[in-house]
Amino acid sequence: MSTSGRLALDIETVDGAIPDGESFDAGNSTHVQLFCVCVGFQPEPEAPADREVFFRDGWGPEAELDVLERTIDWLESKTSETVLTYNGDAFDLPHFRGRARIAAETLGDRADLAHRVERFVDGIDSVDLFLEAREAYEAVHDEWPSFEDACRACRVDVSRTELEAFDVHDVLDFPSHRSTTDAMKPYFIGADVPVVGATYLDLLEAGATDTKTFRELHAMLEHYSVTDVIPLFDLADRRPFEDAITATA
């Protein structure tokens, strides 16, 4: 198998059904559901990266397994021994595996798909760039880096998903679900995904996919997802991060 190709992966989630008496735990796969998965593939160094964003097409375990199946079909079609993520060892890969298992158990007849996802996660060499960037960035800035922080420090371009570029303010009040610190940021952030994703799925279930609002939500979510994946290839090439981050401090 060629080792030249590199995969990249990032998942986005919406909130799951949290049992009474439990607090939300972002690391617990029963507390989240997959909303979409963005994947990328670079066949060789410096080559343009191919990418896809797989959205679920409704609520319910069938829709979640469908997005998992489309994703694993795509991943298995590529020749690679590595997958790049940012905090993927703690979040993306465990939930990718966990949600496949939970959704399959809920339906009772898709253990084959859960096993395929498990084989992929167990068989791929995970390159979690957050683990490498954290130590180098913290030594200079005395804090852990977000994905955007790490990219800026290493001079990797990351396009913001500017809210004003999308006509969605008639259905979404971004400050209402954000923290005080993030309330007025003019661009899409990770905390927006559960709320915006749920609105997207509600519109889809209501048959409103031909509306301007739905199209705008889809475009915004797709842009945000892609900007979390394609820069991973350039960021990986900036290693060792100690040199790249110190040089830009």
Tell me, what is the CATH class of the domain at 6-129?
Answer: Alpha Beta
Q: Would you tell me the structural class of the helices and strands?
A: alpha/beta
Label the overall shape: globular
What fraction of the residues are assigned to beta strands by DSSP? 5-15%
Distance between the termini: 39 Å
C-alpha Rg (nearest Å): 18 Å
Helix content percent band: 40-55%
CATH architecture term of the domain at 6-129: 2-Layer Sandwich
Largest sheet: 5 strands, mixed
Series of secondary-structure elements, N-terminal to C-terminal: EEEHEHHEHHHHHHH
- The CATH topology of the domain at 6-129: Nucleotidyltransferase, domain 5
Task: Name the CATH homologous superfamily of the domain at 6-129.
Answer: Ribonuclease H-like superfamily/Ribonuclease H
How are the strands of the biggest sheet laid out side by side? 3-2-1-4-5
The unreliable regions are none
Number of helices: 10
Mean pLDDT: 94
Secondary structure elements and their pairing?
Layout: E1 6-15, E2 32-42, E3 50-55, H1 61-76, E4 82-85, H2 88-107, H3 111-123, E5 125-128, H4 129-141, H5 147-153, H6 174-177, H7 193-205, H8 212-227, H9 231-236, H10 241-248
Parallel strand pairs: 1-4, 4-5
Antiparallel strand pairs: 1-2, 2-3
Helix pairs in contact: 1-2, 1-3, 2-3, 4-10, 7-8
Descriptive report:
There is one protein chain. The protein is α/β, with parallel strands linked by helices and 249 residues long. It has a domain at 6-129: Ribonuclease H-like superfamily/Ribonuclease H (Nucleotidyltransferase, domain 5). The chain is built from ten helices and five strands. The chain has a five-stranded mixed β-sheet, with helices on both faces.
